[in-house]
Design goal:
The radius of gyration is 37 Å and the shape is elongated. The longest helix is centred in the C-terminal third of the chain and has 30 residues, at 948-977. Helix 4 runs antiparallel to helix 12, helix 5 (587-606) packs antiparallel against helix 8 and helix 15 (1083-1099) runs antiparallel to helix 16. The strands form 20 sheets. It has a 6-stranded mixed beta sheet with strand order 38-35-41-42-46-45, with no helix packed on it. Strands 1, 2, 32, 33 and 34 form a 5-stranded mixed beta sheet that branches. The chain is an alpha+beta fold.
Length: 1265
């Protein structure tokens, strides 16, 4: 069997330089414990005659000596220490310490002051006996919920020299915890005649009956007493000595103890180190022990063996064995430590010490293990002792560096009824027909204490079938189907959590967000949130502030490489999309980030063109003027463009995402990309007068930063609202009904048990505020003030673009489905019943069956809406495309379960492929289109192909401008109209009753409409009322049943059933439920229609390349908060508009929008997409490959037009087909006159407002005054 080197001693490198000094050459305990509960194990070394040391683990990176600041130095000054054990003696959640001492010192009980320091409470606790105490162990022998302490004493000591001044052994001390930080000294469980020279004491439940037994291992066993096994006779609260009966009465010079199920038979075996032959005692299922050390090749037989432990060093699921060795003689005849690795073929241990670099001479004593850097691989520390200062030897810190490690699981226990440290508990993992058992105990090895995080290597096992916790007293809890390579924390009588620790370092003056709160100072921040595996996750973040001058010289984390064949603009766009995914989910903010970054790219490209015109440089945007004197450079055009783009993006993104939750990683990413491109990030100059593209890029980035600080977004105050106040009190989602709502027409905040945004960030506010209600006042791209109206509300001026008018209010006079408000929200409730993969309903979702809506197909009034949306079956009246225009073939039908399709559709458009919010989602789609081999990069589909960089900067500017203007238009309306969301409306109406039948007792004019089979009144014989008679007469809805039916998202499906109407929830995570802003108008509808129109104009075709766009949703993988889909399906769209239309429908199925939010958003998006393309083209049209393109484009002769004037269109040929719509979608009749390339559109009369003029080729927004 061939092994590779696994460990490296990194003690000095990581800040640990220590040794134990002891003329008796006995001292050297080690404790691994989490002193401050930051999730990283710290290190304690006994020093003997040298000072003891406490080293704080700083994020697994290095150790800091805090012996002085923690009080250890002063408390133990001039004390000759021996051993150490850690455990929580007062159940306050922090590990306390018990220090044993040599010669005639007393022991020390050190209380942990909540992770800040230690206080000696020994004397007041009753720990005042001064003898040579070698070892100690903690355990709850009487099962009263607190830790008792057994102290192993050595021998009488009458002075130097050591060899001739030892006399009789000293009776051990047994301290019973009184539960008030005091202890009572109990009579020793061993008769005086049975007292030995104890070097190891350890509570362990060898017979697995739930109470801790006691091993007492003695030195000089052949002279004084052999080893002792004391059986716990709970509930008698006595210890019965059964050593001879169990074959445990070994006469040896016992030095150390390792505990582990070496042969995987479900019971614990024990390895005892010795002077000479070591003993491996195989547990005979609790009936006795058999020494098999020779058979298993771990007898050793030479020198002195001390601290020891069973550890799985390579996570292959088989325990290996470490033994610390060292002489007791004063001379430097040091011995080499041993590492035995288990060989599965021979079923024996193989001495691999030399190969592991552990065979160098030393004088090892105590050892303990843990996972210092939280990588799932076991590390350990070894104490070395010197007889005098000049000797060799120092502490060793072995860090596991294996690259071929198997899978692992780590378990942390916290007792609530049991002792807080959970000492005495056993942990059993079952997987693939195997069982692994480990025990949590306080004090073992030699004078040492292992980490309380229990580590299991599980090899190739990929799922834990069952985790069993046998708490002290054998109180059992079980958990199932757990993932590997994770840490779990189990809190007794609570539940199991995922457990995660993070270490973040920032430079002084920097700030980051942790759990939604801005942090600038060092600290330990703890939070619980919903993890990705369906379990709540305990997250601990340790934040350190580095005030050194070279703070930025940090290790860079790994990242996914960006395709080096991309243009430099594409590379920065991909990194921008990653930045959005690692920031808070704020569609408005990120639409603006996409837009501003697109400006940076385009202008850095355009300044080096003889034809293109910069958009930002040398111009005034809003009231912000950007000076620009032109630039000359000695570099080639391509090199200059790439360099300027990179510095502009680097500067802008570093600023915009400096407070993102993922800011640390992102800062590394920005640096990495610059380094990859060969650029020096230390160049900060903005003086481009010498022609430096880097300085020009910095200038562009800096000017955009300054522009952003005054553009109305309130970036300086993190985009917080300045005036808006909600008119409704929050809806508490976890409670039934909606009793606090005041105005059922207005938006209502939601209170959740925990709020996690769409990007997975915990904001720290479980009642999130309205996002960006004042965004209509932000400076736009192509929108013009002349197209807007300003309304004053509550003392604030709201700017509104393309005002579609007020949405329908709840009516008290219109009954049931005659009320547009009630009809719209009832439709959302009914469509929730479609989220059922078990109803057998099959539909064709291919482009041949759905899609191909024309603008004229959109509804214009309430009657049209009722026809357009199929309230019971779902969907719209689209008929699909007869053929793929690219291939000439019909689209292949794709028959799937409706319940799978609508769930996938809702999830896909809610988050996008990687949660980059809707604006970023459409950039992702554009990038996919750009990568398609059939996409010809001809701008507007004409002329010669553009190079990748020119194509990218132009398409990004057009799409970025469209997304930014969509956010401004949609959120301006959201903030002003402040319209209610479905969860608030449906719960409100359902709580009141029904508004369909006045004859029924539960009639209420503002109640929800009754729809047979979907929304009904509960009757006495209704199954939903059998156990709850008070529900009779209430409203029930057939709908998605909600997240409380999902215990394991990888396995469970909530399904559809009858639920109480006042408990209705949308198809969303319980930690999100509904976006924190008003519904009207739909941002998704606006973004998507604007993007679809922009992409069609950019590419010159409404159709995706190849006539189809596709996205796969794999079986049982795609859905986020429940299992599904039940079979693989593929979302398919023939045109960009088809994709946008499906996006709009997804928000109704998802329970986020009623119809009234949808159609106005589509119409506004249609205008914005066209305007953004036209506006952007004005800046780079002279750089198009074919200068005749613009002459062929249709143009408006004038815009705006008067109410009585005709609308004139230039460059027509008389064969065009025109349609004219109001902003609300109503078709406007007109007549046409065409002559000499001019078409006049004549109407009887128009009122002031926005109109949409559409041809087969292009869409115009017409302003009528």
């Amino acid at each position: 069997m061939v092994f590779s080197q696994t460990f490296k001693d990194r003690a000095i490198e990581m800040g640990i330089d220590h040794f134990s000094l002891d003329s008796n050459i006995m001292s050297g305990g080690v404790a691994i414990f989490d002193f401050n509960n930051d999730g990283f194990d710290d290190l304690y070394f006994n020093g003997g005659e040298n000072p003891d040391k406490l080293f704080e683990n700083i994020g697994g990176k290095f150790f800091k000596d805090i012996s002085y600041s923690s009080g250890i130095t002063s408390i133990l000054k001039d004390v000759n220490t021996m051993g150490i054990v850690a455990g929580d003696i007062n159940n306050d959640g922090y590990a306390d310490l018990f220090v044993t001492t040599a010669q005639k010192n007393r022991c020390y009980l050190l209380k942990n002051n909540l992770g800040t320091s230690f206080t000696d409470i020994s004397l007041e606790a009753g720990i005042d006996h001064a003898v040579w105490s070698s070892t100690a162990t903690m355990g709850d022998y009487d099962l009263d919920g607190d830790l008792d302490i057994y102290v192993g004493n050595y021998v009488q000591y009458d002075g130097h020299p050591f060899s001739i001044n030892l006399t009789n052994p000293i009776t051990d001390f047994f301290y019973q915890n009184n539960g008030n930080k005091t202890f009572t000294l109990l009579p020793s469980p061993l008769f005086e005649k049975d007292t030995g020279a104890t070097l190891v004491a350890s509570f362990t439940d060898f017979d697995q009956d739930g109470d801790s037994d006691l091993f007492v291992l003695n030195d000089y066993g052949e002279i004084y007493e052999p080893n002792k096994l004391l059986l716990n006779t709970y509930p008698k609260k006595t210890m019965q000595e059964i050593s001879v009966l169990m074959g445990f009465d070994n006469e040896m010079q016992s030095m150390g103890l390792a505990t582990g199920d070496m042969d995987v038979d479900g019971v614990l075996d024990y390895y005892i180190t010795n002077l000479g032959d070591n003993y491996l005692l195989e547990n005979q299922n609790g009936s006795g022990f058999k020494n098999i050390s020779n058979t298993k090749n771990v007898i050793d037989g030479s020198g002195f063996s001390w601290g020891t432990a069973f550890i799985d060093i390579n996570n292959d699921s088989y325990l290996d064995l470490y033994v610390a060795k060292g002489s007791i003689f004063a001379e430097n005849d040091s011995q080499a430590n041993k590492l035995y690795q288990y060989d599965q073929l021979s079923e024996k241990f193989i001495d691999n010490s030399i190969a592991e670099g552990m065979a160098e001479p030393n004088r090892g004593r105590g050892m303990a293990h843990g996972d210092f850097n939280q990588d799932g691989k076991i590390d350990f520390a070894v104490s070395n002792v010197r007889a005098k200062q000049s000797d060799d030897g120092r502490a060793l810190l072995y860090i596991n560096q294996s690259r071929n490690s198997g899978n692992w699981v780590k378990i942390i226990l916290e007792g609530t009824v049991s002792n807080k440290s959970s000492y005495g508990a056993s942990i059993i993992l079952s997987a693939n027909g195997r069982k692994f058992i480990k025990e949590l105990s306080g004090g073992t090895s030699y004078l040492s204490s292992h980490s309380n995080t229990v580590h299991f290597g599980v090899g190739e096992i990929e799922k834990i079938d069952e985790l069993i916790i046998n708490w002290p007293g054998k109180k059992t809890e079980s958990y199932f189907n757990l993932s590997v390579n994770k840490t779990y924390k189990v809190i007794e009588k609570d539940k199991i959590y995922s457990f995660n620790t993070n270490y973040i370092e920032i430079c002084e003056g920097e700030r980051i967000f942790i759990n939604g709160e801005r942090k600038t100072s060092a600290g330990i921040y703890r939070n619980i949130y919903q993890g990705k595996d369906g379990l709540d996750e305990i997250s601990i973040t340790r934040l350190e502030v580095n005030n050194s001058s070279d703070c930025m010289e940090k290790n860079t984390p790994e990242q996914q490489p960006i395709n080096m064949n991309y243009s430099v603009a594409r590379k920065w766009n991909e990194l921008l999309l990653k930045s959005i995914r690692n920031d808070f989910a704020r569609p408005t903010v990120h639409a603006r980030n996409l837009y501003h970054t697109s400006i940076a790219m385009y202008d850095a490209w355009a300044v080096y063109s003889d034809e293109a015109v910069p958009f930002f440089l040398g111009n005034t945007i809003g009231e912000f003027s950007v000076n620009f004197e032109g630039v000359n450079t000695s570099k080639t055009q391509d090199f200059a463009r790439r360099e300027a783009i990179s510095y502009a993006c680097f500067r802008l993104l570093s600023h915009r995402f400096k407070n993102a939750p993922g800011s640390i990683e992102l800062s590394y990413d920005y640096e990495d990309l610059m380094n990859e491109l060969g650029y020096d990030t230390s160049i900060k100059s903005t003086d481009y007068s010498d022609g430096s593209p880097a300085a020009l890029g910095n200038y562009i980035g800096q000017q955009l930063i300054e522009f952003g600080l005054q553009d109305g977004a309130n970036e300086a105050e993190d985009y917080t609202n300045q005036h808006y106040q909600s008119q409704n009190s929050p809806l508490e989602v976890d409670k039934s009904g909606n009793p606090k709502i005041k105005d059922p027409n207005k938006w209502q905040p939601l209170t959740l048990s925990i709020f996690i945004d769409q990007s997975g960030n915990i904001t720290g506010n479980n009642t999130p505020d309205f996002l960006s209600p004042e965004w209509g006042n932000v400076i736009p791209f192509a929108l013009e003030k002349s197209e807007s109206t300003t309304f004053n509300k509550d003392g604030f001026n709201y700017r509104i673009y393309y005002d579609p008018g007020k949405p329908a209010d709840l009516s008290s006079s219109l009954k049931g489905l005659d009320d547009p408000y009630k009809w719209g929200f009832a439709m959302v409730a009914v469509w929730s019943s479609h989220l059922n993969p078990f109803d057998g309903k099959l539909i064709d979702i291919s482009p041949g069956a759905i899609g191909n809506l024309k603008l004229s197909d959109l509804p214009k009034n309430f009657d049209n809406y009722k026809v357009f949306y199929n309230i019971e079956e779902g969907g719209d009246p689209s008929q699909g495309h007869k053929k793929n225009p690219i291939t000439g073939s019909s689209y292949t039908p794709q028959i799937v379960l409706r319940g799978d399709y609508v769930r996938v559709l809702a999830e896909f458009w809610a988050d996008g492929p990687d949660s980059e919010t809707p604006p970023g989602h459409w950039f992702t789609i554009l990038n996919h289109v750009n990568d398609h081999p059939q996409n010809e990069k001809k701008f507007a589909g004409r002329g010669k192909k553009l190079d990748d960089l020119e194509w990218d900067v132009k398409s990004y500017l057009a799409l970025g401008g469209a997304m930014h203007d969509s956010a401004i238009a949609a959120w301006g309306l959201k903030g002003f109209y402040n319209y209610i969301r479905p969860i608030s409306a449906i719960r409100y109406m359902s709580s009141l009753g029904q508004s369909t039948d006045e004859e029924l007792d539960n009639y209420h004019p503002e109640g929800i409409p009754l729809i047979p089979n979907y929304i009904e009144t509960i009757k006495e014989d209704d199954p939903i009322a059998i156990d709850y008679p008070q529900r009779v007469g209430k409203i029930k809805i057939k709908a998605w049943k909600g997240n409380h039916f999902i215990n394991n998202r990888d396995l469970d499906v909530s399904g559809v059933g009858w639920i109480m109407g006042n408990d209705w929830v949308p198809y969303q995570r319980p930690s999100f439920v509904t976006p924190p802003f008003a519904g009207y108008v739909s941002g998704h509808s606006t973004f998507s229609r604007a993007a679809a129109n922009t992409l069609a104009l950019i590419t010159g075709s409404n159709f995706f390349p190849g006539g189809i766009g596709e996205y796969d949703a794999n079986k049982d993988e795609f859905l986020v908060f429940e299992n599904g889909p039940s079979k693989k399906l593929t979302l398919q769209w023939a045109t960009y508009q088809d994709a946008a239309d499906q996006c709009s429908l997804s928000r109704i199925w998802g329970g986020i929008h009623p119809y009234i939010d949808d159609i106005p958003g589509r119409l506004i998006g249609q205008i914005i997409g066209n305007e953004s393309f036209e506006f952007g083209s004005e800046y780079f049209e002279n750089n198009l490959s074919n200068p005749e393109i613009q002459n062929l484009n249709l143009r408006l002769f004038s815009n705006p037009v008067g109410k009585t004037e005709s609308i004139k269109v230039l460059n027509t040929n008389g064969f065009e087909s025109f349609e004219l719509y109001s902003i609300t979608g109503q078709l406007v009749p007109f007549s046409l006159i065409h002559q000499n390339g001019l078409t006049e559109i004549i109407t009887n009369s128009l009122i002031s407002g926005i109109y949409i003029l559409r041809t087969d080729e292009i869409t115009f927004k017409v302003v009528v005054r």
